Amino acid sequence: MKPKAYRSELSPDWCPGCGNFGIVAALTRAFAELGLSPERAVLVSGIGCSAKTVHYLRSYGLHTLHGRGLPVAQGIKLARPELTVVALAGDGDGMGIGAGHFVGAGRRNVDLTYLLFNNQVYGMTKGQAAPTLDFGARPKGLARPNPQGPVHPLWLAFASGYTFIARGFAFDLAGLAGLIAEAIRHPGLAFVDVLQPCPTYNDLHTREWFAERVYDLGATGYDPAAGDVAAFAEKAGEWGERIPVGVFWRRRRPTFGEVLGAPAEGDPLARAEGLLAAHHLG
Ligand code: SF4
């Protein structure tokens, strides 16, 4: 299938120039590259501008509660391991109210992909500071400079046990599509932090601001599979004049599904499987 064939008939209502358009384009490219059938893929979101993504693709989609996309996504994957599951969240959704689930998911290593739409503001509610906004930054929706320090998504993913950690840029379509495809292929919990400009409320970190700074980490000879924690910490922390994008960390350890094995007759996961089958999830 061509990337456009994965799009639903609905037109996004995002603001013109929103980075979300780039992410949807990259997601459909990745699905096409992998040859995924829409009925074998499930997108799961929480609440926010990013959460609407599930409506704009022809795959199955669940638009859940604020910060709760990850637990639902993990449940789907455990009950129906043959499906490709992609969870997505904004930085407020994922790093704020959903932060506990983000950490817990890393401990389990369920085989799914998690995309963070990171624009550093709460776009849907008029641009308040999100957990990833730099200390002292003042995008136009704030009455005063941000008095809180930021959560660092890549470091938090590492500390939580994610087995694939990457960062992409929403308007580098080819690069982001490649990262998403790699994340989906990875056997385990894969995290992609996507730099997603919000032109309506973040006038500091614009498309142009990122485009001048991002560079390909892979082109520097960095090896994400080397297990070099110090190199990971240094590269993941690089921010400002130069911002690396690419794969920062990759390792293999048993997924939660492999550890648990197939659900036995009568256990809750087996019942969930029957319930999902009854709702025609594949
Ligand atoms: Fe995109 Fe920001 Fe508009 Fe939301 S408010 S749709 S994140 S540009």
Observed structural traits:
282 residues; Rossmann fold
Largest sheet: 8 strands, mixed
| Assembly of the depicted chains | single chain
Q: Write out the strand line-up for the largest beta sheet, numbering strands in chain order.
A: 2-1-3-4-8-7-10-9
**Uncertain segments:** 277-282
**Assigned CATH superfamily:** Thiamin diphosphate (ThDP)-binding fold, Pyr/PP domains
**Number of extended strands:** 10
CATH 2nd-level architecture: 3-Layer(aba) Sandwich
Per CATH, the class reads Alpha Beta
- Total helix count? 10
* Average pLDDT rating: 94
Q: What percent of residues are in strands?
A: 15-25%
The percent of residues in helical segments reads 25-40%
Q: What spatial form do the alpha-carbon principal axes imply?
A: globular
